[in-house]
Amino acid sequence: MSSYHPIARVSGLALIGLLSACHGQADAARPAGSAQLGAITITRQACGSCHVIPGIEGADGRVGPPLAHFASQQTIAGKLPNSPANLKQFLKAPRVVVTNGAMPDLGLSDDQVRDIAAYLYALK
Amino acid sequence: MIGEATRRLFRGWLLGLATCALIAVIVIALILSGIIFNTSATQPHSKAVAWGAHFTMINSVARRSRGDVPTVPLTRETLMAGARQYEAHCIICHGGPGVARAAWASGMLPTPPYLIDASTRWSHAELYNLVHDGVKMTGMPAWGEVESDRRVAEVVAFLEVMPKMSPDQFARLRQRIHAEQAAQSTRGTP
């Protein structure tokens, strides 16, 4: 970064600012869940025994896909486009979305799904 | 002959030691009285405590798993025996490929992990000792107290094969075990 011309640096930062402003608008469309409660649900449901999840203690599983940068992940389980609605569909019935998948149906409530989504979509 | 400076240094050192001791007593009293440590399983440990407890367990298991442990040959019979035990004792807390734990397992703290990658996290001896000796304060029983060493070795053999099974194969295996059990119980009734 230090090797860039000052003007390039400033315009780069401006671009980042602009992009994050657009990002902020998209937030309204997301389900209203609590990322903090999501972290607790993720810990309790032992998601980390199969997935790498930043910010969750001991979440270093190597069974399913790592969930770092989930917000910019393009698909969910390689099957559905990444959207809050599709994430809910997958979390509610993973073995319907991925037939014969190793991810079990955890019996999550709507609130738990919303909270998990809030946590995952904060992983930019 | 002790100089004045040395005496002052010694006094300061004693005072510091007394302060540390007083703080330690207060902290221990706060923990023992239940004021600053909540033993309920409603809130997860703080990250530092969770990390510390887990790290201690990993090191403790590794340290005590340096010797040889019983191993059974990987035959159809031993794997079926291990699978039967996994079905009877393990799956309810640990789940399996495509199979969730019992809902109440998420009420446990620490919560029991899924074991699909257990054989990449732990060596054979470590897995054997984890099953045989259990883990304090986690709810994991010492199965060696109630099962023979051979039984423990069989379930470890199954754990090591589990990641190589597809969820469908795992489901078929469970169906077979359930059918066996149903056949046995019908034979058992007069």
Features:
heterodimer; A: Immunoglobulin-like; 45% helix; B: 190 residues; mainly alpha; Cytochrome Bc1 Complex, Chain D, domain 2; elongated
Provide a descriptive summary of the structure in words.
The complex is a heterodimer of chains A (124) and B (190). Chain A is mainly α and 124 residues long. Chain A is built from 5 helices and 2 strands, in the order ααββααα. A two-stranded antiparallel ribbon of chain A has the order 1-2. In chain A, strand 1 and strand 2 form a beta hairpin. Chain A is globular and about 30 Å long. Chain B is elongated. Chain B has 190 residues and is mostly helical. Chain B has a single domain, classed as Cytochrome c-like domain (Cytochrome Bc1 Complex, Chain D, domain 2, Orthogonal Bundle). In chain B, helix 3 crosses helix 6 and helix 5 packs across helix 6.
Number of domain modules of chain A: 2
State the major sheet of chain B.
Answer: none
CATH topology of chain B: Cytochrome Bc1 Complex, Chain D, domain 2
Regions of chain A with pLDDT < 50 over 5+ consecutive residues?
A: 13-30
* Low-confidence runs of at least 5 consecutive residues of chain B: none
Radius of gyration of chain A: 17 Å
**Mind telling me which CATH architecture of the largest domain in chain A this is?**
Sandwich
Architecture blueprint of SSEs:
The complex is a heterodimer of chains A (124) and B (190).
Chain A: H1 6-26, H2 35-44, E1 75-76, E2 80-81, H3 84-92, H4 94-97, H5 110-121
Antiparallel strand pairs in A: 1-2
Chain B: H1 4-32, H2 47-63, H3 76-94, H4 118-121, H5 124-133, H6 149-161, H7 167-188
Helix pairs in contact in B: 3-6, 5-6
Summarize the structure.
The complex is a heterodimer of chains A (124) and B (190). Chain A is mainly alpha-helical.
